[in-house]
Design a protein that fits this description.
Elements (H helix, E strand, L loop, with lengths): L13 H9 L30 H22 L2 H17 L5
């Protein structure tokens, strides 16, 4: 846990939530959504960790699929159809789709 943001996330029962409400502990701590000027990331997130790994991979895959579509359009007849079918499998299920 980061020393700058000492908050733990755990499951809570309805009774736990009611107790927290009674003591005013239901709101996030002040500054939880601020950006750390040293890292450019939210407070508590170290430099290099402020990204969504799946999102960056999805964008790369979309670019690759666009490139493959353009390439398939330039290939002759059946080769184009086979290439397009194979690249569609990769897009749907990764390399194991082949």
């Amino acid at each position: 846990m980061n020393a700058r943001l000492p908050v733990a996330v755990t499951a809570a029962t309805r009774n736990d939530h009611a107790k927290a409400q009674a003591t005013g502990k239901t709101a996030p701590p002040a500054g939880w959504d601020e950006i750390d000027p040293k890292t450019g990331a939210p407070v508590g997130i170290d430099k290099g960790w402020a990204y969504k790994p799946g999102a960056s991979r999805a964008e790369e895959l979309q670019q690759l699929q666009q490139f493959a579509s353009e390439k398939a359009a330039k290939l002759p007849g059946q080769i184009s159809a086979d290439f397009a079918a194979d690249t569609a499998k990769v897009g749907a299920g990764g390399m194991k789709g082949l």
